[in-house]
Design a protein that fits this description.
About 35% of the residues lie in helices and about 20% in strands. With about 240 residues, the protein is α/β, with parallel strands linked by helices. It has a single domain, classed as Acetylglutamate kinase-like (Carbamate kinase), CATH 3.40.1160. About 40% of the residues are buried.
């Protein structure tokens, strides 16, 4: 079946994997997510994924001790590797080829990211999951998602969230929040819409990489979007 996108990079938060509790692993959520990924791969779409680590560690803000930012970021990056390995195993259990590559050295767990190898794995039918962020402190997994999307020549970065697009304010707290169907990179930055961090949006803009924000909770939205339906909010030139 012909789809609008041949290769996509899907970005998801770690909290999503934690389900309603927001921490640890909710295996019913992981099972549902695996099915959504398989469904779009069956359309012929090549899929890569970047996961956050917030279901295990969200930085130093809420911990009762003083911790160096660099070391805290390393803990967060290791959390993303755990999430990546868990999702990989869930996909393999459903008879899919899946691999993890990391921005950190994690011998015995996953391969270190290498661009040409990553592209080869995707072309060979692997669902490729990137853990370890960029491998560097001070960079978010949003920025890692855009960077990896560029490196593998993804057609678009798709950020799966709990809401169905980009709003001018949090629609959960503000029922009258305005939803946007299309936005420019500049509008997102100028209005500080919190879609992704500023570095990630700037990197999209510099390289003309489109971004879609859609609901990963609505189980058909990802499938509908890659087929070309008007789902979610698009950020582009």
């Amino acid at each position: 079946m012909k789809t609008k996108y041949q290769r996509v990079l899907l970005k998801l938060s770690g909290e999503y994997l934690g389900g309603s509790a927001g921490h640890g692993f909710d295996f019913s959520v992981i099972d549902t997510l695996s099915n959504q990924i398989i469904k779009i791969q069956d359309l012929g779409v090549e899929v890569a994924i970047v996961l956050g680590g917030g279901n295990f560690f969200r930085g130093t803000k809420n911990i009762p001790l003083k911790m160096d930012r660099v070391e805290a970021d390393h803990i967060g990056m290791m959390a993303t590797v755990m999430n990546a390995v868990c999702l990989k195993e869930a996909l393999i259990a459903k008879n899919r080829k899946a691999q993890v590559m990391t921005g950190l050295e994690a011998p015995g767990v996953a391969e270190k990211f290498e661009k040409q190898k990553a592209v080869s794995l995707i072309k060979a039918g692997n669902i490729l999951i990137f853990g370890g962020g960029t491998g560097n402190p001070y960079f978010s997994t949003d920025t890692a998602a855009v960077l990896r999307g560029l490196e593998i020549s993804a057609d678009i970065v798709i950020k799966g969230t709990k809401v169905d697009g980009i709003y001018d304010k949090d629609p959960v707290e503000h029922p009258t929040a305005q939803r946007f169907d299309n936005l420019s990179y500049a509008e997102v930055l100028n209005q500080d819409l919190k879609v992704m961090d500023g570095a990630a949006i700037a990197l999209c803009r510099e390289n003309r990489l489109p971004l879609c924000v859609l609901s990963i909770v609505n189980q058909d939205d990802l499938f509908r979007f890659v087929q070309g339906e008007d789902v979610g909010s698009i950020v582009h030139e």
